[in-house]
Amino acid sequence: MPSAAMRDSAKKSAPPGAIEYSVYSFQKSGGASGDRWKKHDSFSDMTKAVEQAETLFATNEYCRVEIKQKYTDPKNNRCVDMTLKTYERKGVRISGTVMALGGAVACGVIAFIAAYIVGTKM
Predict the structure, then answer these.
(1) Domain count of the fold of the chain
(2) Running DSSP on this structure, what letter comes out for residue 55?
(3) Is the domain of 39 the same as that of 75?
(4) What are residue 115's phi and psi, to 5 degrees?
(5) Which DSSP category does 67 fall into?
(6) Within this chain, do residues 40 and 98 fall inside the same structural domain, yes or no?
(7) Do 41 and 52 meet the contact criterion of CB atoms below 8 Å apart?
(8) Which DSSP state fits 12?
(9) Are 105 and 39 in contact, with CB atoms under 8 Å apart?
(10) CB atoms < 10 A from the CB of 23, how many?
(11) Same domain, 80 and 100
(12) Which residues cross the membrane (predicted)?
């Protein structure tokens, strides 16, 4: 059960029905402080938040950029916080099957070269 102070702070943070969109970024190499998540700005307009998130993601400085939506639910007296959109860079991974196939091709080439060398000496 939320306390009265929590309900009051939820009511004061935003007027009922007001929606706030916040843009956060994540850096892979965190500084000495260890804070790798950074809040950039908050908007009342979702399109502005999306534009800033796309701009930040296009700089290639951040491996992840998120847009979070926060609004006050007056019926339940609580703040609701959810992630709307995530921009994320994913590294290219070579699967085990591709690695095994590459190893088999390399072994085949080595065997062919060895057979050729042995065959030409006889």
Answers:
(1) 2
(2) H
(3) yes
(4) -65, -40
(5) E
(6) no
(7) yes
(8) H
(9) no
(10) 25
(11) no
(12) 98-119
Q: To which residue do tokens 């703040």 refer?
A: 79
Which amino acid is located at 27 in the chain? Answer: Q
Which residue range(s) make up the domain with 76? 4-91
- Same structural domain for residues 58 and 69? yes
d(CA 30, CA 24): 14
Q: How many residues in the chain?
A: 122
List the pLDDT tens digit at each of the 122 positions of the chain: 333 443 444 444 445 568 899 999 988 765 556 668 889 999 999 999 999 999 999 988 888 999 999 988 888 888 889 999 998 887 666 778 888 899 999 999 999 999 988 888 76
Residue 25, CA distances (Å) to 21, 42, 80, 118 in order: 13, 13, 20, 60
**Residues 40, 19 share a domain:** yes
Q: Are residues 87 and 97 in the same domain?
A: no
Note whether 47 and 106 are same-domain residues. Answer: no
What pTM does this model have? 0.57
Q: How many helices (H) and strands (E) does the chain have?
A: 3, 4
Q: Which amino acid is at 30?
A: G
Non-local (6+) Cβ contacts of 6 within 8 A are none
